[in-house]
Amino acid sequence: MKGVILAGGLGSRLRPLTLVTNKHLLPVYDRPMIYYPIECLLNAGIKDVLIVTGGEHAGDFLKLLKNGKQLGLQTLAYAYQEGEGGIADALKLAEEFAEGDKICVILGDNIIEGNIRKASGDFFTQRSGAKVLLKEVPDPQRFGVAKFDEKGKITQIIEKPADPPSNKAVTGVYFYDPDVFKVCQSLKPSGRGELEITDVNNYYLKRGDLTHDTLEGWWTDAGTFESLYRATCLVAEGGANHPDLANKKPHATPAPVKPAAAKAAAGTHGTPGTPGKSAEGKA
Q: pTM of the entire structure?
């Protein structure tokens, strides 16, 4: 299986910081943001990775990551997205890289406390289809939300519903078989002029081979000043991408967190408070 990290967008909600570099290269505690999805993939045994980016600062990724060997990657490739056509539009650029293999797709500003090792292993043995990772959130109306039947099977994924059918949001981690590229090619732009990843997931759902797991530990994005601060606090206090979440060790040098920081951190996805943007949200 290969990994695809979607790291495009203009990062308009993080200006003026993103006037000088891509938002995925901004620091989250002691490392650039892009290191976290890379580490997440490595923990799942995925060492061949494509980064899809765009904008005028795309070259900064090469300066930082080079060929990825120093991070433990076997192959690191890059693709450039023209404009902002949405997550599914960016995903289309990974077809040649995938070479007919299954892929794990991660939004570049998503950071998790635990790991996706089990989900990756389960999908590796899944004959076909897709898998999404869900997380309970306190305000599901801000996300793509899963609707379930009485047996706990997903029947529909609804984007930002006014009356959410559940509190299970779809995170920014997805697994797809090679058919995903044909699906992306067949999509029509949504009302906001983008190719939506929710439409991709609903295609597999209708086809009958979309599976799901629930993500353990916290999950957050870092695409706004509030969520970037929250992610920094969480990583400083306990680290991220733990291979063994049940036996994780405290961070060696926790940063001092003021009451305001603790309150902000309480807003992380899966904990009480106000979470950050949807995995479907624009960069």
A: 0.85
